[in-house]
Amino acid sequence: MHPTPDSASSIGVPTATSAAASAFDVGLAAELAAGAGELLVKLRAELGFADRRALKDAGDRLADDYLLGRLAAERPGDAVLSEEGKGEQGRVGTERLGADRVWIIDPLDGTREFSEEGRDDWAVHVALWQRGLGLTAAAVALPAEGVTLRSDLLYDVPEARSAPPRIAVSRTRPPAEATAAAAALGAELVPMGSAGAKVMAVVAGTVDAYVHSGGQFEWDSAAPVGVALASDWHASRIDGSPLRYNNADPYLPDLLVCRPDLAEPLLDAIRGTH
Ligand SMILES: Nc1ncnc2c1ncn2[C@@H]1O[C@H](COP(=O)(O)O)[C@@H](OP(=O)(O)O)[C@H]1O
Ligand SMILES: [Mg+2]
């Protein structure tokens, strides 16, 4: 049973998810991501953009407190890995390493863009990792667009376009691999903030690929990758190996998310740069 997509807040159509995925977990992921997103939209309106540092800090704190509070209430037996969390719930925590169910959350991805007036490339990530199964539920809210993408909805891979491919990259640190891959494929680079916003631009068909390297953590990609994989988009490390989550060290420095037909050409081009 899948929730009916609400046309105002969701795109995509219901999809068959793996038997391991619980509709309740995906529903919670989407509710929490959208709920944190609403708080962040209000905060932006209240604080304004005069003090960007204060806005970023307040946003991180507000969304993290909300998500940790709701997860503690709704799923008290589960562990959490959060960018903002501290101690057992943060990057230095070890409790999650023995847990069977771990929520991997990025309360505010694209913090820089969140603090810039008029930008909508920022996101809230909520994913569930389960031992032996990997990512089984995921939601990415794009609050400034009023959209939440989720792993129980299908985001169809469109027909290949005849136009040159478009590759999303970090606005502030576009990796050399992406520049080289773009040159090899005659592709155009599209600078954008937030890992979540970039992966969602891929599954929405706005761009054809997202290439990142040079540093990132599990929370930056878990929920976006969970959404993309559930709809059969390609997601891997840039050497083609699988993305693995809930590692002792959550550093996960690179990824490629793209249309399946572009995976091999892009991986070949990236390999050529190494
Ligand atoms: N070299 C790096 N090291 C650590 N984190 C990085 C990184 N490059 C990008 N990221 C993180 O990945 C997210 C997307 O970055 P970008 O917009 O540059 O593509 C941001 O998450 P946060 O906004 O949650 O910190 C950013 O901090
Ligand atoms: Mg992030």
Automatic annotation (TrEMBL):
Mg(2+) 1 binds at residues 83, 106, 108-109. It catalyses: adenosine 3',5'-bisphosphate + H2O = AMP + phosphate. Keywords: Magnesium, Metal-binding. InterPro entries: CysQ/Inositol_MonoPase (IPR050725), Inositol_monoP_metal-BS (IPR020583), Inositol_monophosphatase-like (IPR000760). Pfam families: Inositol_P (PF00459). The keyword Magnesium applies. GO terms for molecular function: 3'(2'),5'-bisphosphate nucleotidase activity; metal ion binding. Its cofactor is Mg(2+). One of its GO terms (biological process) is 3'-phosphoadenosine 5'-phosphosulfate metabolic process. It comes from the Bacteria. PROSITE patterns: IMP_1 (PS00629). SUPFAM superfamilies: Carbohydrate phosphatase (SSF56655). PANTHER family: 3'(2'),5'-BISPHOSPHATE NUCLEOTIDASE 1. This is 3'(2'),5-bisphosphonucleoside 3'(2')-phosphohydrolase. It comes from Glycomyces harbinensis.
